[in-house]
Amino acid sequence: MNTDPERITKGLAPLIELLKILGKIIRQIAEYEESEGQSLDNALNELFKPENLAKLSKELPIEVFGSFMASMVRFSVLYSKLVNFGSLSPEEKKQIAVELEEIAASWEKFVQKLQEIKDKNE
To answer: CA 6, 11, 15: angle at the middle one, nearest 5?
Structure first.
């Protein structure tokens, strides 16, 4: 085992960041679950029931709903790759990072559009 402090520091740096980010995510999930009184998993399962998706498809402009569904499909494909994250090449990991960032941006636009529609209807 190489015990060179510089290599150890370089190797631990991404793990330290991962732990910080994971801690933030877990805290946000816990706060959501406290405020909503249900698990995030249950809330997402409810959202993605076919009847709720059908309702959303009628309430939203087709380009907004279509973009959201396309990003959901992309996420599903990426999720299957994340299961074997450790076996991916560095290039594959970088590509997944780019795609996850694009999906996040798409979901942010979707949430923003939902808020605009809600505000318009009030």
So the answer is: 135
